[in-house]
Amino acid sequence: MKKVLVVDDSLSVARQLEKILNGSGEFTCVGHAKNGVEAIKMNHTENPDIICMDMNMPGMDGLTALRSLTALDKEVQVVMVTSLGGVGDMYTQALKFGAKNVISKPFEADSVLKMLREL
């Protein structure tokens, strides 16, 4: 089973994603970080296979955290999560900084799992 770290300041979004992951039989949620700073710490302690990270969070946003994570570990697998589906610039920036893909909120279980399987 692949270990996934969920990073989102919204508890309801995090729980929804955790439910999808834990119910899949293929992925397990190993933790929930509320911002980029926590994500960087938890990446080190939990050693997840994949990080699902919100782009917009207080403290350290997802794009800043993504840059830090990829600088520390070139092999890190980060999928950004955003409700800004139509904002092409942030999508492009996320991919440029090393994100493997971008999931738009609200998300559907099948599309999330399909995307994670492709990593």
Q: What's the end-to-end separation, in Å?
A: 13 Å
The CATH topology comes to Rossmann fold
- Order of helical and strand elements: EHEHEHEHEH
Number of domains: 1
CATH class: Alpha Beta
| Main sheet: strand order | 2-1-3-4-5
Calculate Rg over CA atoms: 13 Å
Determine the mean pLDDT: 93
In terms of per-residue confidence, which ranges show pLDDT below 50 for 5 or more consecutive residues?
none
Number of strands: 5
Helix/strand/pairing class, anyone?
alpha/beta
Shape: globular
CATH architecture: 3-Layer(aba) Sandwich
Q: What does the main sheet amount to?
A: 5 strands, parallel
| Helical residue percent band | 40-55%
Report the total helices.
Answer: 5
The fraction of residues in strands falls at 15-25%
The CATH H-level homologous superfamily: Response regulator
Topology diagram in text:
Layout: E1 2-7, H1 11-22, E2 27-33, H2 36-46, E3 50-54, H3 62-72, E4 78-82, H4 88-96, E5 101-104, H5 109-117
Parallel strand pairs: 1-2, 1-3, 3-4, 4-5
Helix pairs in contact: 2-3
